[in-house]
Amino acid sequence: xxxxxxxxxxxxxxxxxxxxxxxxxxxxxxxxxxxxxxxxxxxxxxxxxxxxxxxxxxxxxxxxxxxxxxxxxxxxxxxxxxxxxxxxxxxxxxxxxxxxxxxxxxxxxxxxxxxxxxxxxxxxxxxxxxxxxxxxxxxxxxxxxxxxxxxxxxxxxxxxxxxxxxxxxxxxxxxxxxxxxxxxxxxxxxxxxxxxxxxxxxxxxxxxxxxxxxxxxxxxxxxxxxxxxxxxxxxxxxxxxxxxxxxxxxxxxxxxxxxxxxxxxxxxxxxxxxxxxxxxxxxxxxxxxxxxx
Amino acid sequence: xxxxxxxxxxxxxxxxxxxxxxxxxxxxxxxxxxxxxxxxxxxxxxxxxxxxxxxxxxxxxxxxxxxxxxxxxxxxxxxxxxxxxxxxxxxxxxxxxxxxxxxxxxxxxxxxxxxxxxxxxxxxxxxxxxxxxxxxxxxxxxxxxxxxxxxxxxxxxxxxxxxxxxxxxxxxxxxxxxxxxxxxxxxxxxxxxxxxxxxxxxxxxxxxxxxxxxxxxxxxxxxxxxxxxxxxxxxxxxxxxxxxxxxxxxxxxxxxxxxxxxxxxxxxxxxxxxxxxxxxxxxxxxxxxxxxx
Lengths: 293, 293
Known about the structure:
Number of strands of chain A: 9
Mean pLDDT of chain A: 89
Structural class of chain A: alpha/beta
Strand content of chain A: 5-15%
Number of domains of chain A: 2
Number of helices of chain A: 9
CATH architecture of the largest domain in chain A: 3-Layer(aba) Sandwich
CATH class of the largest domain in chain A: Alpha Beta
Strand order of the largest sheet of chain A: 1-9-8-7-6-5-2-3-4
Order of helices and strands of chain A: EEHEHEEHEEEHEHHHHH
Oligomer: homodimer
């Protein structure tokens, strides 16, 4: 992975087309427009979403692939990964000179069938209701052509101070790690919200804990910052909590697997730092051969 | 759950003893000392941890249960849940008049065998290296005696603006929800860190995503804020990502269960909001009978 942390000096205003008008397209198109670039046109299958985004950024819109304008500097394809696989051929057809980039973390650059192809992956969780500030959003760039790579890099640097070049191969693992960090941690919040609602406790009581957990990841490795029954190897609590989940087998399995894996991580860390393991009550409960029921 | 959001006026300085010198004890004892209360003594089985905490707050310390002082207003027992189950009888013996409270989210008040017993559960993830600001830490209080409950409530209000009364029964579910929100989301970070290290990508690239995921939980329900392949019902990506995890069966199972449960949550939400389901490309991929392989 190579990095550029500073803005490029050859600031060049680009003519852009957005294919897609969902969460990523909306956030990215708004940010690029704010940075001074011009989105000429938005394409979406659905008129309402095409118009909503187009109105936000003063662009034209269309719902017909045939009417997508020619001659733009960059065509951003920002649709679901499965729609991308289906539509890539149709969209690029007849525009063989143009640079097409997709914004999907998980898809190879080679899903695009045109010669000038690239990837512009802003790694963030986007919503339509909440426009993201791109300044610290890591952007991962790839292009087949060196000049295209330079152009995409410069464009990304207009938005973000964290721009990286990354191959499709390595980006697969980056995206998978992002699914764990974002979607799965968010789903842990969602499970907690549902669990608390059943006992009349508002989800808002969890927010300081969520914030501190995220804040700790800035200053120490998540493995070292881990707390709770599994990190302590506290069998009584783990057994009891699994019983509390008896009426939800998926949550119970998630609990069991997460706890087992936390134990594995802690044991593997403790075996590296065994001189620290006699300083607290915690050490009385860590067995290297620990196995959850 | 009943709430007190304002400081009590009958501010009374307390004489305290801490039994335990781990993460929770250290953070709580430091915060109570800062709030003007006096920790007379720290007990820990391990001299180094007893001395370390005692020195931090200007208290005496002991490593012998017999030498724990008498006549303190409140004895805080803050040791691992399994140590608590083992030691509660020994510690309270001969001090039948005293108020003992434990700080464990998961344990019943009745683990304490003495008549004046209570719980003071500060719901946060604590580390020795990072003293937590208690102002917004939700504190959950319980006591057998009404006057003791009032005293603990007043003490908690000296530290935090979020003090609640909660029964042992409901606190079980609160603590379980906290395990999901904190320990399991943190473990998702830990998995990501390990995964990225194998591909030469620094974990720090994940921090903006982690921060935004936590920040979104403040402004929208985690279910509504969910993004990623499972929320989109994107089978291709999910199948591919499960294959990437082929050499780690635990992570692969966690991936499968989390994705399945995210789909279940989204489908259950979509069935409530079906009028929103035709506005974007995403709708093309949501099947109500969706089942992961």
